[in-house]
Design brief:
alpha/beta, TIM Barrel, Lyase, Ornithine Decarboxylase, Chain A, domain 1, 12 helices, 18 strands, 24% strand, amino-acid biosynthesis, Diaminopimelate decarboxylase, lysine biosynthesis
């Protein structure tokens, strides 16, 4: 998208504002499917938690994707968006057994990562196909909060507990149709990914009735010009070759599955915010915007560095600014960042705002959550209205305290 397009959307819909480029989402989806085109059967399950707007889910349905869900609410959103239950995989962690039962009754693919839950589910529903999430004990990911395959992770059943898994499967007679892993997010070294894949292949040999192997995701995307990223094409060549070889060894046709979220929507997203104040102190020039970590928490939570562009002044002289929000505590988006000269009223654009931005937003400081717009076929479509004061009061009960 061009700055003039984003400026027109900020003018039409106000700020702050989330904007998603449908063409970029489609191109990322095509890039991933092309990279693994040498496999006989490929399934891309979009990770709903990254960005769960119904319009985005419908776009992925149109592209041919399935869904990766981690809560019963995400399952329900997927069904509401028109996905067939067999196109949805449900991978919860630490939820009640009743929620897992509800998902099973809805007919979606169940993925279990806990021995006790596996045994309980197998005893109650031995005929319901189940995928097992393995923890390969591989440390991968760009931050401790998003590294989920290491030995101290709460996710998955340890690969060293395979004898326990096999005992449960034998005792319950349950049907295992898939094996799953997810090592973490922002994976750069594909050799680490391929190493973990070998662990998954070894685990798969213990089960004769598999339909698919799910390799999770976690591919790194660039956050600024020239930034490093996962080489999807190289990974596609190497993993496809190994997967096809394993399929022959296994003696049964298998589907290669992934569950990307950030890879598909991060670069398609833009967050637009207006500069309220430019404040010079003894050592710093602050650019204060009409937003805060209530709308974009990733820099504060993960230390992520989003490229910030002054789309109101793309040709001006560059100066150093510390970009901060309006929340009543420190919420710094960037320290001493080079940005084209900023004036009050300018619109700043935060790139890579498609994943885990709106979905992690809140009403902290009783601020409204922004609107969302989908840029589709050269037009801006409002896909979520900006919140109002009535939304803050919704579900609150005004009791008499006389």
């Amino acid at each position: 998208m061009q700055p003039k397009d984003l400026l027109s959307l900020a003018s039409a819909f106000g700020s702050p504002l989330y904007v998603y480029d449908a063409e970029k989402i489609a191109s990322q989806y095509a890039r991933l499917t092309d990279a693994f085109s040498k496999t006989g059967s490929l399934r891309i399950n979009y990770a709903v938690k990254a960005l769960s707007n119904i319009a985005i889910l419908k776009l992925f349905r149109k592209l041919g994707a399935g869904l990766d869900t981690v809560s019963i609410q995400e399952v329900q959103l997927g069904l509401h968006a028109g996905f067939e239950p067999n196109k949805i995989i449900y991978t919860p962690n630490g939820v009640s057994f009743e929620e897992i039962e509800e998902a099973a009754h809805l007919g979606v693919q169940i993925n279990i990562d806990n021995l006790s839950v596996l045994e309980h589910f197998g005893a109650r529903y031995p005929k319901v196909p189940v995928c097992i999430r393995i923890n390969p004990h591989v440390m991968a990911g760009g931050n401790s909060n998003i590294s989920v395959g290491h030995i101290d992770s709460k996710f998955g059943i340890s690969i060293h507990q395979m004898p326990h898994i096999l005992r449960i499967v034998e005792n319950t007679g349950m049907h295992i149709n898939g094996i799953h892993m997810h090592t973490g997010s922002d994976i750069l070294d594909i050799e680490v990914f391929l190493y973990a894949a070998e662990i998954l292949f070894d685990a798969a040999k213990h089960f004769a009735t598999l339909d698919f192997l799910d390799f999770g995701s976690g591919f790194k995307v660039p956050y600024k010009k020239g930034d490093i990223q996962t080489d999807i094409e190289e990974l596609g060549r190497k993993l496809s070759k190994r997967f096809n070889a394993f399929e022959k060894e296994y003696g049964r046709k298998l589907t290669l599955a992934f569950e990307p979220g950030k890879f598909l929507v991060s670069e398609a997203g833009y967050f637009l915010a207006k500069v309220n104040v430019v404040k010079q102190t003894t050592s710093t020039v602050f650019a204060g915007i009409d937003s805060g970590f209530n709308h974009l928490i990733r820099p504060m939570l993960y230390g992520s560095q989003h490229y910030i562009e002054n789309i109101s002044n793309t040709k001006g002289k560059e100066r150093f600014y510390t970009v901060v929000g309006y929340i009543c505590e420190t919420d710094t988006f960037a320290n001493n960042c080079r940005i084209h000269e900023i004036s009050e009223g300018n619109i700043l654009c935060f790139h890579n705002a498609g994943a885990y931005c709106f979905s992690m937003s809140s009403n902290y400081n009783s601020r409204f959550r922004p609107a969302e717009v989908l840029w589709y076929n050269g037009k801006g479509l409002l896909i979520r209205e900006r919140e109002t004061f009535d939304d803050l009061l919704k579900n609150q009960v005004d009791v008499a305290l006389d």
